[in-house]
């Protein structure tokens, strides 16, 4: 693939991006951009520059999307984490290797009470939502859906297998309705999946062989073009069947 | 003038990595971060802590490598948005694969390390104030040799290294300058001019490498 500088809007730090309309009261800045002065933006890392002004929304959104790099928690993110300890009223949860551990209140489950609450063991996996990221305070998770107060698919993940993909790919799988690779997989396979934007994917299928096939397909699909997905998935399924 | 090559995303177990090569000098560097501070006493309440280690091509690190670490820390701490990562650590490892110069010089290794770290930082998604690149030159009898060979460096009277920030594809501000040997003010200024135009040239290739690597990261999108 050749680098197409203009059509893809690739930027690196130091490239000034001038805004078309100079009304800075009307813009919202996403990750990896800073406002240099009233009319220019500066990217802070290499990536794809995205500007979106959806109809109805009052503000123009600008950000730089980057595939590489370590996950930094933001409020509202859906993450897959591992319980690594318990102290007082909190579980200690790891959502990324070597990153600062985060907290999960033992009552942050739907209808949890002192007597009736999930008892999580060390090394158990959970699917949760980042509920607060205050400065100088540990990040906190929650397993309650904030809009309904119900479980909303959050909670302990039992069985299955977890592996890493790039953060951008995890976001793509999670937020794209009918992501091509998942759409192709559901035609042929049965599985349960939980995707965390921290780049962790949990998958569970009927047998461990089937689970490993799903794991293999998803982690390999990071290097496939969309046009190759169908062919490659079929090839892998055939390969696993002959094992 | 020596040739150069650059490549990003070499290592799988770190957040960012890159190699950079100036003919005989080759360096691979890796970035891990922002992570939890390994030693609590290093934790800074308002900014990131940079833990830099330079590993020589042979033997164990000496004062020479420690000196390089100090220089790299000076350069990097003003290019990274440090206040964006309070209470965290950014681990930086620079492994010299081939030194390509004698022990009394460091300019080739330092320039190579700065360039490979720039690529590795971008690969790790660490927030930068601007792009930056480095080059070096040697002076001999009023002549400036940009990116000299080992032999040219041996016979030179002085060598100069500098790091420039890059804005809109052109060398912009002088970030760091380091000279060893007997030199004059006019010689230093012409050296800086020569290095800045060389940085412009290196940037053309390096930019292509970076953008290609971004495109490669998004194969699944197209």
TrEMBL record, chain A:
<dbReference type="GO" id="GO:0071038">
    <property type="term" value="P:TRAMP-dependent tRNA surveillance pathway"/>
</dbReference>
<keyword id="KW-0694">RNA-binding</keyword>
<dbReference type="InterPro" id="IPR036612">
    <property type="entry name" value="KH_dom_type_1_sf"/>
</dbReference>
<dbReference type="Pfam" id="PF15985">
    <property type="entry name" value="KH_6"/>
</dbReference>
<keyword id="KW-0271">Exosome</keyword>
<dbReference type="GO" id="GO:0000176">
    <property type="term" value="C:nuclear exosome (RNase complex)"/>
</dbReference>
<dbReference type="GO" id="GO:0003723">
    <property type="term" value="F:RNA binding"/>
</dbReference>
<dbReference type="InterPro" id="IPR012340">
    <property type="entry name" value="NA-bd_OB-fold"/>
</dbReference>
<feature type="domain" description="K Homology">
    <location>
        <begin position="160"/>
        <end position="208"/>
    </location>
</feature>
<protein>
    <submittedName>
        <fullName>Exosome non-catalytic core subunit rrp40</fullName>
    </submittedName>
</protein>
<keyword id="KW-0963">Cytoplasm</keyword>
<dbReference type="InterPro" id="IPR004088">
    <property type="entry name" value="KH_dom_type_1"/>
</dbReference>
<dbReference type="InterPro" id="IPR049469">
    <property type="entry name" value="RRP40_KH-I"/>
</dbReference>
<dbReference type="InterPro" id="IPR026699">
    <property type="entry name" value="Exosome_RNA_bind1/RRP40/RRP4"/>
</dbReference>
<dbReference type="GO" id="GO:0071034">
    <property type="term" value="P:CUT catabolic process"/>
</dbReference>
<dbReference type="GO" id="GO:0071035">
    <property type="term" value="P:nuclear polyadenylation-dependent rRNA catabolic process"/>
</dbReference>
<dbReference type="GO" id="GO:0000467">
    <property type="term" value="P:exonucleolytic trimming to generate mature 3'-end of 5.8S rRNA from tricistronic rRNA transcript (SSU-rRNA, 5.8S rRNA, LSU-rRNA)"/>
</dbReference>
<dbReference type="Pfam" id="PF21262">
    <property type="entry name" value="RRP40_S1"/>
</dbReference>
<dbReference type="GO" id="GO:0000177">
    <property type="term" value="C:cytoplasmic exosome (RNase complex)"/>
</dbReference>
<dbReference type="GO" id="GO:0034475">
    <property type="term" value="P:U4 snRNA 3'-end processing"/>
</dbReference>
<dbReference type="GO" id="GO:0071051">
    <property type="term" value="P:poly(A)-dependent snoRNA 3'-end processing"/>
</dbReference>
Automatic annotation (TrEMBL), chain B:
<dbReference type="GO" id="GO:0000177">
    <property type="term" value="C:cytoplasmic exosome (RNase complex)"/>
</dbReference>
<dbReference type="GO" id="GO:0071051">
    <property type="term" value="P:poly(A)-dependent snoRNA 3'-end processing"/>
</dbReference>
<dbReference type="InterPro" id="IPR050080">
    <property type="entry name" value="RNase_PH"/>
</dbReference>
<dbReference type="InterPro" id="IPR020568">
    <property type="entry name" value="Ribosomal_Su5_D2-typ_SF"/>
</dbReference>
<dbReference type="GO" id="GO:0000176">
    <property type="term" value="C:nuclear exosome (RNase complex)"/>
</dbReference>
<dbReference type="InterPro" id="IPR036345">
    <property type="entry name" value="ExoRNase_PH_dom2_sf"/>
</dbReference>
<protein>
    <submittedName>
        <fullName>Exosome non-catalytic core subunit rrp46</fullName>
    </submittedName>
</protein>
<dbReference type="GO" id="GO:0034475">
    <property type="term" value="P:U4 snRNA 3'-end processing"/>
</dbReference>
<dbReference type="Pfam" id="PF01138">
    <property type="entry name" value="RNase_PH"/>
</dbReference>
<feature type="domain" description="Exoribonuclease phosphorolytic">
    <location>
        <begin position="6"/>
        <end position="126"/>
    </location>
</feature>
<dbReference type="GO" id="GO:0005730">
    <property type="term" value="C:nucleolus"/>
</dbReference>
<dbReference type="GO" id="GO:0071038">
    <property type="term" value="P:TRAMP-dependent tRNA surveillance pathway"/>
</dbReference>
<comment type="similarity">
    <text>Belongs to the RNase PH family.</text>
</comment>
<dbReference type="InterPro" id="IPR027408">
    <property type="entry name" value="PNPase/RNase_PH_dom_sf"/>
</dbReference>
<dbReference type="InterPro" id="IPR001247">
    <property type="entry name" value="ExoRNase_PH_dom1"/>
</dbReference>
<keyword id="KW-0539">Nucleus</keyword>
<dbReference type="GO" id="GO:0000467">
    <property type="term" value="P:exonucleolytic trimming to generate mature 3'-end of 5.8S rRNA from tricistronic rRNA transcript (SSU-rRNA, 5.8S rRNA, LSU-rRNA)"/>
</dbReference>
<dbReference type="GO" id="GO:0071028">
    <property type="term" value="P:nuclear mRNA surveillance"/>
</dbReference>
<dbReference type="GO" id="GO:0003723">
    <property type="term" value="F:RNA binding"/>
</dbReference>
<keyword id="KW-0698">rRNA processing</keyword>
<keyword id="KW-0271">Exosome</keyword>
<dbReference type="GO" id="GO:0016075">
    <property type="term" value="P:rRNA catabolic process"/>
</dbReference>
């Amino acid at each position: 693939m050749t680098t197409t500088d203009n059509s893809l809007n690739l930027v690196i730090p130091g490239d000034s991006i001038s805004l078309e309309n100079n009304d800075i009261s009307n813009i919202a800045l996403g990750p990896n951009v800073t406002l240099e002065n009233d009319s220019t933006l500066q990217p802070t890392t290499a990536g794809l520059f995205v500007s979106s002004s959806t109809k109805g929304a009052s503000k123009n959104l600008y950000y730089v999307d980057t595939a590489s790099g370590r996950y930094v928690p933001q409020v509202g993110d859906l993450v897959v984490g591992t319980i690594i300890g318990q102290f007082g009223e909190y579980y200690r949860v790891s959502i990324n290797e070597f990153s600062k551990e985060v907290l999960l209140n033992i009552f942050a489950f739907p209808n949890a009470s002192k007597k009736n609450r999930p008892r999580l063991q060390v090394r158990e996996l959970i699917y949760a939502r980042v509920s607060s990221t205050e400065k100088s305070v540990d990040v906190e998770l929650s397993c309650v859906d904030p809009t309904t107060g119900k479980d909303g698919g959050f909670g302990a993940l039992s069985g299955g297998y977890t592996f890493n993909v790039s953060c951008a790919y995890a976001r793509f799988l999670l937020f794209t309705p009918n992501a091509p690779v998942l759409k192709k997989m559901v035609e042929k396979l049965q599985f349960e999946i939980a995707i965390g934007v921290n780049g962790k994917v949990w998958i569970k299928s009927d047998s461990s062989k089937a689970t490993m096939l799903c794991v293999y397909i998803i982690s390999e699909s990071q290097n496939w073009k969309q046009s190759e997905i169908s062919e490659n998935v079929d090839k892998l399924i055939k390969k696993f069947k002959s094992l | 003038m020596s040739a150069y090559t650059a490549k990003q995303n070499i290592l799988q177990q770190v957040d960012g990595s890159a190699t950079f090569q100036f003919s005989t000098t080759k360096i691979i560097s890796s970035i891990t971060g922002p992570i939890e501070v390994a030693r609590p006493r290093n934790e800074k309440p308002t900014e990131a802590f940079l833990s830099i280690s330079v590993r020589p091509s042979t033997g164990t690190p000496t004062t020479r490598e420690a000196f390089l670490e100090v220089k790299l820390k000076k350069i990097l701490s003003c290019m990274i948005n440090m206040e964006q990562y309070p209470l965290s650590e950014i681990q930086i490892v620079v492994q010299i694969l081939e030194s390509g110069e004698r022990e009394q010089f460091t300019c080739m290794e330092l320039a190579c390390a700065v360039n490979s770290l720039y690529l590795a930082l971008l690969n790790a998604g660490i927030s930068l104030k601007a792009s930056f690149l480095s080059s070096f030159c040697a002076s001999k009898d009023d002549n400036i040799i940009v990116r000299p060979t080992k032999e040219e460096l041996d016979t030179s009277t002085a060598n100069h290294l500098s790091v420039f920030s890059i804005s809109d594809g052109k060398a912009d501000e002088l970030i760091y300058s380091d000279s060893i040997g007997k030199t004059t003010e006019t010689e230093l200024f012409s050296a800086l001019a020569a290095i800045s135009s060389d940085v412009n040239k290196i940037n053309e290739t390096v930019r292509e490498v970076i953008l290609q690597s971004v495109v490669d990261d998004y194969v699944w999108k197209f």
